[in-house]
Amino acid sequence: MRVVYVSTDAGVPPFGRKGASAHVQAILRQLLRRGHEVHLVTSRPGPVPGEFTNLRVHALPTPGGRDTRSREAAARATDRHVAAVLDRLHATGGIDLVYERYALWGRTAMAWARAHGVAGILEVNAPLPIEQARHRLLVDAAAADAVARSVTADAEVVVCVSEPVASWVRGLGGAAPSSVHVVPNGVDTERFRPVPPRSRPGHFTVGFVGTLKPWHGVQDLVEAVALLHAGDPTYRLLVVGDGPGRPALEDLAARRGMAGAVELTGGVPPSGVPRHVARMDVAVAPYPPTDDFYFSPLKIYEYLAAGVPVVASDVGPVPDLLAAGGEPIGALYRAGCHPHLAATIVGLRHDPARRADLGRRARAAMVEGHDWSHVLERTLALSEVLHAGAQAS
């Protein structure tokens, strides 16, 4: 099958260090592993890692602009270049599937697929107009909503990472409800796997992976570990990632008297994350309380696949994820309550048998149902392209 993967979001470099970048790489990797001919269309090609030697990359103009309005116009102009790439590929061998990661100004790929009778799958990871307006700047909100309505209407299948995202898509009024599906994120269970326990005399490492932005709640984690460290200096905090919140995080750690007990790795490529997760005794997803949590957190799947005991806040779909098959595969605490987070970590530290049991069950759950191979299989099964391929063979 000849697949064209389209990602026009300039904020998501396909081979970068963001969680979104890791997601792009995961889908590309699975498509290639299935033996498909895969083409990537992106405005951020960057250096391509060696494992993607067979990937064909088509670079779009990189959107620029001196202010928000001009950057939005440039992003729309970049998206229009997608049609020429698809036309060229279609004329030189045809296209079986256009798979697009939804971008704020991306509407061309799905419209092209519909007009040419080619299967089109749109992957939606967040309500981007809402996210852009809340956390960055959005000048033309009405146009962004119109793009979202148009692209979801044109897609044969709209795959959303969570039910809140699917609810937002349905509310746009463009897509037929029957075309909107929920397929949560996954994990590469070959890359993230348990490692033999290593002796860690004299310390207990609490870990976090992710971008240092407010909605990840890392300050709550620092507060919790500071409480523990004040009574027991053997507690350590390992933060894997970087972002605009790093200076405030370092300042908070210093004010809480634990600067020497916190390690911040800075940005780490996706290939380097597993070895850091393996250093953790407990891994935490400290999301703050919110009424509209719409994520399907990659970090939690990665922690679970690595067999590391997980502590996470009770927001959104997280409680359901950590109750796989009715049996807990992680521990929950009240979002925003760092004393409760601290107490949950202490409970796990002093119950090694429970930690081992959670780790075993978590690993098994990820292998059985959440490997990226399963995620892609479920996604392709929703499209006519898979059925057409099966009939042709």
Notes on the protein architecture:
With 393 residues, the chain is of the alpha/beta class. It has 16 helices and 13 strands. The chain is globular and about 65 Å long.
Topology diagram in text:
Blueprint: E1 2-7, H1 19-33, E2 37-42, E3 56-59, H2 68-80, H3 82-91, E4 97-101, H4 108-115, E5 119-124, H5 128-135, H6 141-154, E6 157-160, H7 163-172, E7 180-182, E8 204-209, H8 218-231, E9 235-240, H9 246-255, E10 262-264, H10 273-277, E11 282-285, H11 298-305, E12 310-313, H12 318-321, E13 331-333, H13 338-349, H14 352-369, H15 372-381, H16 384-392
Parallel strand pairs: 1-2, 1-4, 2-3, 4-5, 5-6, 6-7, 8-9, 8-11, 9-10, 11-12, 12-13
Helix pairs in contact: 4-6, 8-13
* CATH architecture annotation of the largest domain: 3-Layer(aba) Sandwich
CATH C-level label of the largest domain: Alpha Beta
| Fraction in helix | 40-55%
Radius of gyration: 22 Å
